[in-house]
Amino acid sequence: MDFGLTEERTAIRDTVRDLARRRLEPGYLQRAVGTEFPWDVHRQVAGLGVFGLLAGPGHNPLDREDYVVAGLVVEELAYGDFNVANAVIPVLLMSSLLARFATPEIRRRWLEPLVSGETYIAFGLTEPHSGSDAAAMRTQAVAVGDDYVLTGEKTSVTMLAHADAMIVTARTSRDGQSTGVSAFLVELGQRGVSKSDIPDTGWKPMGRGVLHLDGVRVPREALLGEEGSAFRSVLAGFDFTRPLLALTGIGCAQYCVDKTAEYVRDREAFGAPLAKFEGVSFPLAEHSTTLEAARLLCYWALWRRNEGIRHTAEAAMSKWYGPLMASRAVKDCLLLHGNYGYAQEYGMEQRLRDVMAVEIADGTAQVQKIIIARERFGSGFVPYAR
HSE of 178 in the Cβ direction (CA atoms, 13 Å)? Predict the structure, then answer.
């Protein structure tokens, strides 16, 4: 197993790292406390070409999809600005779905503006009564001639306030008969669409919201993939978003550990630097270890994705373990800063507010453990083989 990075991967990582640390980190706190989305920064990131990593020929700066590179990108961005990094993940997902399943007309209209940072497409799967149980969704899409009429509600939609369109999943029926779950690209400015915000303690520049669909009519061209095939195709490839989300938490936590190490080397108590006391240095050593373990788990899942090897369990492991370790690290770093860590003006408490979001997004720890148990010990259980 090769843990080294190729020259190509290293060059991309270093380019993103330079932007994150030079441009993003100084303005993180100012952006993090407001609800305005930083389109200027978003477009600067887009200018690196990384939004097209999963968008297919003509958009991808590489000659192949490379999920490890996607992980490097979001981790480095999160070191500078957790929220900017997390806004990238839906772009990677939506561009991938459009490239694979959208009609040529939809791709022509939406893919280039999406990867250039000029527009945003949100994703709607979660519903008030179903949460992570996607099979229990109630949103309906009734086929009427060549169109579909959508009615229902989606909640916890990231970036809803800033999106121009949204991929919506719905139970589809034709002539009174169910045809399964389908996915549609819905423009959000049309009649019958309304939105409401969810006030959160963190994640503020992106925000979450609730989408209400009241008899919204969309053309057949808006269908992604075949009618009724969403679970078999459109929703089948989500595993890669889980390690990406975990890596944003890890990147944020690594920033906190690095800054805390600098702080405790410089600050003195009882005639010695704080770093000389085991009660200070040992927690940082422990978090350095657990973050590295979580990081490797994430890249292991992404490497398996690259190789076409099943990675559902590994993705769930990374999504459970990574955010948990990240939140613990950020909290301890806050405490090691004492009263300065708790003060709003220094940004440590804001990072804790933000990083906790990835313990929830894309399924909580409990959901991930259900997936791990099902994958490893379910009805078709076989001993784990690498």
Answer: 7
**Burial class of residue 30 (count of CB atoms within 10 Å of its CB; 0-12, 13-18, 19+):** exposed
Residue-wise pLDDT tens digits, 208-245: 999 999 999 999 999 999 999 898 887 776 799 999 99
Model pLDDT for residues 30-88, shown as the tens digit of each residue: 999 999 999 999 999 999 999 999 999 989 989 889 999 999 999 999 999 999 999 99
Q: What is the dihedral of CA 287, 290, 293, 298, to 10 degrees?
A: -90
List the domains of the chain with CATH numbers.
Answer: 7-119 (1.10.540.10), 122-224 (2.40.110.10), 238-377 (1.20.140.10)
Beta strand 165-174 with 140-144 is: parallel
Dihedral-angle region of residue 334 (phi above 0 means left; psi in -120 to 50 means alpha; beta otherwise): alpha
pTM above 0.70, yes or no: yes
Element (H, E) at 280: helix 278-307
Q: Classify burial at 322, counting beta carbons within 10 Å of its beta carbon; exposed 0-12, middle 13-18, buried 19 or more.
A: buried
Please give the sequence-ordered ranges of beta strands (E in DSSP) within the chain, or none if there are none. Answer: 121-124, 140-144, 147-158, 165-174, 177-187, 193-198, 208-219, 223-224, 268-269, 272-273
Phi, psi of 183 (to 5 degrees): -120, 140
Q: CA 125, CA 182: separation in Å to the nearest integer?
A: 11
Tens-digit pLDDT profile for residues 114-172: 999 999 999 988 998 876 666 788 999 999 999 999 999 999 999 999 999 999 999 99
Alpha-carbon distance of 219 to 101, in angstroms, equals 15
Q: Which amino acid, one-letter code, is at 42? A: H
